[in-house]
Amino acid sequence: MAEKTLPQIFKYVDQNVDSYKKLLKEAVAIPSVSCDAKYRDDCVRMVEWTQEKLKEVGARTELRDVGYQTIEGKEIKLPPVLVGVLGNDPKKNTICLYGHLDVQPALKSDGWETEPFELVERDGKLYGRGSTDDKGPVLGWLHAINAYKGIGEELPVNLKFVFECMEESGSEGLDALLIEKLKPEGFFNDVDYVCISDNYWLGTTKPCITYGLRGISYYFLEIECAKMDLHSGVYGGTVHEAMTDLIYLMNELVDKNGKILVTGMYDSVAPLTEAEKRLYTNIDFDTEAYRKSIAATRLAHNGDKEQILMHRWRYPSLSLHGIEGAAFQPGAKTVIPGKVIGKFSVRIVPNQEPEEVEKLVFDFINKKWAARGSPNKMRITAQSGRAWTENPDHPHYQAAARATRLIYHTEPDMSREGGSIPVTITLQEASGRNVLLLPMGAGDDMAHSQNEKINVRNYIEGIKLFAAYFYEVSKLAK
Ligand SMILES: C[C@H](N)C(=O)N[C@@H](Cc1c[nH]cn1)C(=O)O
Ligand SMILES: [Zn+2]
Ligand SMILES: [Zn+2]
Fold first, then answer.
1. CB of 198 sitting under 6 A from ligand 1
2. Which residue CA neighbors atom 13 of ligand 1 most closely?
3. What are phi and psi of 258, to 5 degrees?
4. At residue 337, does pLDDT exceed 70?
5. Which residues surround ligand 3, an ion (CB under 5 A)?
6. Structural domain boundaries of the chain?
């Protein structure tokens, strides 16, 4: 590949900014919310839409059926997984790219300034659900491939694609597809590297390359006191209320400083070594900017940088998310809910296995429930994904660092991520190859939150970064 290929590609990318925004607008307009079955057709539409785009860049694609999920006793078909192959030149390195096409729920009434499923550009930012998590990055890969085509240059690597639409809901069906079908079929035989762009920089100016993720163990804690909601003036004082029991149980899980109270939760957490401790000192992370960006009054751990990073990356945390069946709408609704489902999750860390964490939580809740002596019905279920770490002293990471320096003219931070991408460790195990996370978006993108956005700069420079990453990986020894 000629010396001037990358500068030509960068120029091509700069000339096509409008078309990249237009495509992201189309993608954001499909409300592919995976956790709510009423959007399941939109999830399927999103997968099919992406399949068309993948075909347009020349990939061979197929939609793989991954079966059904059970929601409230009903069997619901899972969206298919989009699998693709582009190029099979044995002289080239092969990268397997993973991304997700589903999004978290969003309503304008949640506090969005504009419609969440309508991409809006304001002050150099593209607002819309999925703009940074993960539709922008997925499209980034396609634009990077297209840019090679656009300047008439052959792609320097072979690519394989796994794009799913259930990541935000535990990636149901995906592990089985990878391990029981794709691996035996030989999909991973020629894969040399795995790359995922589905996380964010630590701050807003400095790029990162990421070598670790926390896992997640998500719980549904259901309490039922009556077969319907009840008038609190008629039944209040006469029944054992489900919500009272639920609030009691949820309040037992974590203290005001965020310490998890579930017995044994910290027992298997990997001990902190002196060498690991030193890693945190050099990370560029402004805790005050982080605090201000979310308008929090005070951060935990006295805002100490090292402690904040450790509690995001290497210690478990427990968050309470919500209560189904509770009166959440404005107005003084006076019912006693007949059934409530409390939702909480534990971000789990290396050395903690999901099964072990689930058992600790179940045992703890069962013990507290027995002590409570409530006559109500209690049920707890969980869905979990594992944590992941990788060796960042690998030529793959060095290649990504070279690509990053070329685009951003600075040394990227080697970061870990507090969020979870359940399939990462499965891809690592199924391929037996080095896995790398190459984030596109900035630390203030507010994924999952109101007014999620991606900066135009991150989107466009991210496309160039991906093109440069292909080039750098192509130079690695076969
Ligand atoms: C980091 C990634 N972009 C992400 O947002 N992952 C989700 C995955 C998840 C698992 N259950 C529900 N969502 C996350 O970390 O919450
Ligand atoms: Zn997400
Ligand atoms: Zn994501």
1. yes
2. 168
3. 90, 5
4. yes
5. 133-134, 198
6. 5-214+388-474, 216-270+314-385
Q: Which CATH class is domain 5-214+388-474?
A: alpha beta
CA angle 125, 466, 209 (to 5 degrees): 85
User: Choosing from 42, 102, 358, 452, which is the catalytic residue?
Assistant: 102
Question: Which tokens in the block code for residue 368?
Answer: 């507290």
> Is 301 marked as a binding-site residue?
no
- State which amino acid sits at residue 348: I
DSSP state of 297: S
For the segment 436-462, the average pLDDT, to the nearest whole number, is 98
Whether residue 363 is preceded by a cis peptide bond, meaning omega within 30 degrees of 0, is: no
Q: Which ligand 1 atom sits nearest the alpha carbon of residue 104?
A: 13
102 is known as an active-site residue = yes
Smallest CA-to-CA distance from 64 within 158, 185, 195 is with 185
For residue 99, CA distances in Å to 236, 380, 393 come to: 49, 30, 24
Q: Write down the mean pLDDT value for the chain.
A: 97
Residue 2: predicted pLDDT = 64
Please report which confidence band the pLDDT of residue 1 belongs to, taking 50, 70 and 90 as the band edges: confident
Q: Please indicate whether residue 154 is annotated as part of the active site.
A: no
Please, which residues have CB within 8 angstroms of residue 173's CB and are 6 or more apart in sequence?
Answer: 66, 67, 69, 78, 81, 166
CB 455 within 8 A of CB 442: yes
Q: Give distance in angstroms: CA of 416 to centre of ligand 1.
A: 14
- How many angstroms separate the alpha carbon of residue 132 from the centre of ligand 3? 8
Closest CA to 169 of 394, 420, 405: 420
Cα–Cα distance between 459 and 20 in angstroms, integer?
9
Distance 414 CA to ligand 2 centre (A): 21
Fold that domain 216-270+314-385 belongs to in CATH: Alpha-Beta Plaits (3.30.70)
- Enter the tokens of residue 410: 């600075």
Q: Report whether residue 218 contacts ligand 1, using a CB cutoff of 6 Å.
A: yes
pTM over 0.80: yes
DSSP state of 178: I
| Residue whose entry in the numeric block shows the structure tokens 């009054």 | 297
CA of 168 to the centre of ligand 1 (A): 5
ipTM value: 0.98
240 is in an annotated binding site: no
DSSP letter for each residue of 304-370: -HHHHHHHHHTS-EEEEEEEETS--SSS---EE-SEEEEEEEEEE-TT--HHHHHHHHHHHHHHHHH
DSSP letter assigned to residue 302: G
Distance between CA atoms of 150 and 143, rounded to whole angstroms?
10
